[in-house]
Amino acid sequence: MTRHLTQTRIDDAKRGTNSEATPLLMEPSNPVPLMSGPVHTCLDYLERKDAYFEPGGAPYYVNYPVQGIPQTNVVHQPHPVLIRDLRHALDRLDIDTHGFKLMKSQTSLAKADFEDDDVIRNKYYPEVKALLKEALGAREVYIWEHTVRNCFPTRPV
Q1: pTM for the full model?
Q2: Mind listing the pLDDT tens digit for each residue in 142-154?
Q3: How far apart, in Å, are the Cα atoms of 87 and each of 25, 84, 93, 101, 103?
Q4: Which long-range contacts (CB under 8 A, 24 or more apart) does 50-53 make?
């Protein structure tokens, strides 16, 4: 369901309509609309099931089919949400109060560096670890993995 936010806005832009009644902004070099103002949409959340709390019942998803094992036991429920741009509130959001924190940070990597996993692991990981240690007061930070998504080559990573 999270796809609907982007897909609906792209479909609206192609038709010249706006199903969320929110102004659409377009970059001249990019046909993908940018949102302006709050957006009503649905996000999928994991359905709470008693079975998840039983031994061996934790939610799982197998990336490839395994004979005799269901690919997943996860059930999602869509929940209507209001999505807002919080970049203006950087200083007012706190991890202890809100459960997340927004921060601005610069990296030493160039955009092209994000195409090289070794550069990401050897240069970017230490930058992110230092940022998180400072912001959260953590003694240790472990980065499990990363995924670079850049479907818009004209935009920064």
Answers
A1: 0.53
A2: 999 998 877 666 6
A3: 17, 9, 10, 10, 9
A4: none
